[in-house]
Write a structure and sequence with these properties.
356 residues, 6 strands, globular, alpha/beta
C-alpha cells in the first residue's frame, strides 16, 4: 500500500491594500480614548486573525509550531510604472479618507505584531508583488492562496494558485473562475480588456458588457482572435469594437499583472511568526480593544501563542431541531447567570447589516 502524499506547503498572500479599505468601510467610526480613529485597525486585526486561523491554524497545530509562509502586501506610496504608460490610470479615484490614512502606520504595526511579514515595493502595485510571489511559490512546490476581493487577481489562478474572499467566503479555483466569469483564468485579462475596469479607470469597448465579452471570446478564442474578426462583427457593437482597436493593446497591458518584478525578498524569507503578545497588549490597551487586550495579556503571561491542549476547555455543541429541545434550552437559559448570543448577519456594518 503506497504512502499518502503529504500536503503541499502553503504560501498565503494577503492583498493588504484591499483589506484595509474593506476594514475601514465595514466598521463603524470607532475612536480611542484620545479621539484617534481605530475602526480600520480593529477591522484589520479581526480579518487577519480569522484568516490565519482558517488557512494556517490547523497546520500550525499539526506541526507543533508555526508552519507556512505568508505575506501581507500593501501598495507603496507614489506612482507606479502604469502611471507612466497612461496618465489617466486610476485618475478618477478620490483621495484616501484622512481617517483611514492616519490609521495606516498603526495597521502596519499591528499586522507585523500579529506575526505577518509585510511587503511594500515602490514603483509597482501590490498585485504585481502578489503575482510574482504566486508564480515563484507555485513553481517551488507551494499551494498558493491569495486572499482578496479584487476580481483582477482571478488571472493568477492555476492548479497551484487559488483565491479566497473572507468577506463572502468565496473560494475560486480554475473551475470557480470559469463559473463566475464565463471564461477560464488565462482569458480573464482578455475579458477585462473588453468590458473595461471602472475601478482602475481603464476603458473597454463601449457598450460591451460581460455577456458580449464572453460570447466573443467563446467564438474567437482570445482577444487577438476578436481583434482579427472585428471587421465582420455587425451592428453598433461591432462599430464600437473597431473604434477601440487602437486602444485595446494598451488596456490589456494596463490590466495584466506582472509576475516577474524584482522583489527584495524571496518566498522562503516570508516565514510566519508567533504573535508578539506583549507588544500587542500595549497596542490593544492604547486603542481600548479590551477583549484582545485580555487575550494578549494571558498569552504573554503564559509565554505562548496558543494554550496547550490540556488547558483548552472542552466544548459540546447541540443542534436544536425540535420545539421540545428549544423549550428545554429556553428553560436552561432563563435560569443561567450569564449567557452569550451570537448572530450571523449579511455584513459588518451595524446600520445596514441584516440578520441571516
Amino acid at each position: 500500500m503506497s504512502e499518502p502524499t503529504p500536503p503541499l506547503p502553503t504560501l498565503l498572500l494577503v492583498d493588504g491594500s484591499s483589506y484595509l479599505y474593506r476594514a475601514y468601510h465595514a466598521m463603524p467610526d470607532l475612536r480611542g480614548p484620545d479621539g484617534f480613529p481605530t475602526g480600520a485597525i480593529h477591522g484589520m486585526v479581526a480579518m487577519m486573525k480569522r484568516l490565519r486561523e482558517q488557512v494556517l491554524g490547523s497546520g500550525e497545530r499539526r506541526q507543533g509550531g508555526h508552519a507556512g509562509h505568508a505575506a501581507c502586501v500593501f501598495d507603496a506610496h507614489g506612482p507606479t510604472f502604469r502611471d507612466g504608460w497612461y496618465d489617466q490610470y486610476k485618475a478618477h479615484r478620490a483621495p484616501m479618507p484622512e481617517d483611514l490614512r492616519t490609521q495606516i502606520p498603526a495597521i502596519h504595526e499591528v499586522v507585523r505584531l500579529l506575526g505577518w511579514p509585510i511587503l511594500e515595493v515602490p514603483g509597482i502595485e501590490a498585485d504585481d508583488a502578489i503575482g510574482t510571489l504566486a508564480r515563484v511559490g507555485a513553481a517551488a512546490g507551494h499551494q498558493v492562496i491569495v486572499s482578496t476581493g479584487d476580481k483582477d487577481l482571478a488571472q493568477l489562478v492555476t492548479e497551484r494558485v487559488r483565491l479566497i474572499n473572507t468577506m463572502s467566503n468565496e473560494r475560486l479555483d480554475i473551475a470557480g473562475v470559469q463559473a463566475k466569469f464565463g471564461v477560464p483564468p488565462d482569458r480573464i485579462v482578455d475579458y477585462l480588456t473588453l468590458v473595461g475596469d471602472v475601478v482602475d479607470n481603464v476603458p473597454g469597448v463601449d457598450k460591451v458588457g460581460p455577456k458580449t465579452a464572453v460570447k466573443w471570446l467563446a467564438e474567437h478564442g482570445s482577444l487577438d482572435g476578436v481583434i482579427a474578426a472585428a471587421g465582420g462583427i455587425k451592428g453598433a457593437v461591432g462599430d464600437n469594437l473597431r473604434k477601440a482597436l487602437d486602444w485595446l493593446p494598451m488596456a490589456r497591458q494596463l490590466l495584466s499583472i506582472k509576475c516577474d518584478v524584482t522583489l527584495p525578498v524571496g518566498v522562503h524569507d516570508l516565514t510566519m511568526q508567533a504573535p508578539d503578545n506583549a507588544k500587542l497588549a500595549e497596542l490593544f490597551g492604547r486603542f481600548e480593544f479590551k477583549s484582545w487586550l485580555h487575550e494578549s495579556q494571558q498569552s504573554s503571561e503564559n509565554g505562548q501563542d496558543n494554550p496547550p491542549p490540556e488547558a483548552r476547555v472542552a466544548r459540546h455543541y447541540e443542534t436544536i431541531l425540535t420545539e421540545e429541545a428549544l423549550d428545554a434550552w429556553l428553560t436552561k437559559l432563563s435560569e443561567a447567570d450569564l449567557i452569550c448570543v451570537d448572530t450571523e448577519t449579511t455584513g459588518l456594518d451595524p446600520l445596514q447589516a441584516r440578520l441571516v
